[in-house]
Amino acid sequence: MVIFGRNRLTVHYTLTMLKNICLLLGAAMLFSLSSNAQEKPIPLYPNGVPNSKKAPADYFEKREGYSINHVTDPTITPYFPEKGKANGTAVIVFPGGGYINLTVTYEGEDIAREFNKIGVTAFVVKYRLPSDEIMVDKTIGPLQDAQRSIQLVRERAAEWGIKPDKIGIIGFSAGGHLASTLATHFKKAVIPNEKNISLRPDFAMLIYPVITFGDWAHTGSRDNLIGKNPSQELIDLYSNEKQIDADTPPCFIIHAENDDTVPVQNALLFYDGLINNKVKAEMHLFQEGGHGFGMTNPKNKGKWFEWGANWMAENGF
């Protein structure tokens, strides 16, 4: 068929518009599928949360700005690198928040995406915050979720293209306390572990972490986890500088000397314990930066994430 003049132009423009619409719809569908596949939360306990009590009516999960609180159903959210970029390493991310909130944005989602850029699969954990209202024993609640997280990632490592001996953890502030607890308390399971899956992280990265519940404690984190009048035994148990041994995984530590929320002595105590037990460790102290700066310290041009990536490569992770 031959088309002349105005009719030919009309058909041409119509076909072009239809083609562009199809391309846009296709791109939107692909983006949607990719986004959903990358960030769909997975329940940690699909068959019921251990160590739990029925939550009161006014205790329900809330998201306020960059943080979440009142978690009753803990989850783990995977973030996968671009296709063909994954290197088999995984990092499980524990946001901070004083064991009363979870800073899930700049200490969670943003960190996961940064790991994706270097080929590392990341998992952000929305863990339960210690509470007598929803837990039988609040002192082990967060650790249960941390242990379950590494157990789950190792169980599904083959499915996700992860090497089971290259699964690390990173924690910020109180999330750093949880990460350091996981790194030093892995020999005693506080969750069912019938398959005897290793709960030991292969490496740990601790960013302005709460470590001790002794003289240099962040009292808010301590009070929230073990109560305002804990026994000395409980204080020592969760003062993680006292729980280090030769089996503690290699650690990378970041802190600011002028941190007036979590004193830098927390990092110093842990680093000293690692060295005394001949555990590989690297620590960087910023002169300034305060607390809770996330990915970028506004007082310093140094990029701790790049240092951490170099440390991971140096140790074969």
What does this structure look like?
Strand 8, helix 5 (174-184) and strand 9 form a beta-alpha-beta unit. The protein has nine helices and eleven strands. It is of the alpha/beta class. The strands form two sheets. It has an eight-stranded mixed beta sheet, sandwiched between helices. Strands 2-3-6 form a three-stranded antiparallel beta sheet. It has helices at 5-38, 105-117, 141-155, 157-160, 174-184, 219-226, 232-237, 265-276, 304-314, and strands at 42-43, 62-64, 67-69, 75-79, 90-94, 102-103, 121-126, 167-172, 203-207, 251-256, 281-286. Helix 3 (141-155) packs across helix 5 (174-184). The protein is globular. The chain folds into two domains: 1-38; 42-314, Alpha/Beta hydrolase fold, catalytic domain (Rossmann fold, 3-Layer(aba) Sandwich). The model is unreliable at 1-37 (pLDDT under 50).
Key terms:
alpha/beta; 317 residues; 36% helix; 11 strands
Shape label: globular
Kindly report the average pLDDT value.
90
Tell me the Rg in angstroms.
23 Å
Order of helices and strands: HEEEEEEHEHHEHEHHEHEH
Give the DSSP E fraction (strand runs of 2 or more residues).
Answer: 15-25%
Helix coverage percent of residues?
25-40%
Strand order of the largest sheet: 1-4-7-5-8-9-10-11
CATH topology of the largest domain: Rossmann fold
- The overall strand count is 11
Provide the domain count.
Answer: 2
**How many individual helices?**
9
* Name of the top-level CATH class of the largest domain: Alpha Beta
Q: Unreliable segments (pLDDT under 50, ≥5 consecutive)? A: 1-37
The computed structural class is alpha/beta
Terminal residue distance: 64 Å
Reported for the largest beta sheet, the result is: 8 strands, mixed
CATH superfamily of the largest domain: Alpha/Beta hydrolase fold, catalytic domain
Give me the CATH architecture of the largest domain, please: 3-Layer(aba) Sandwich
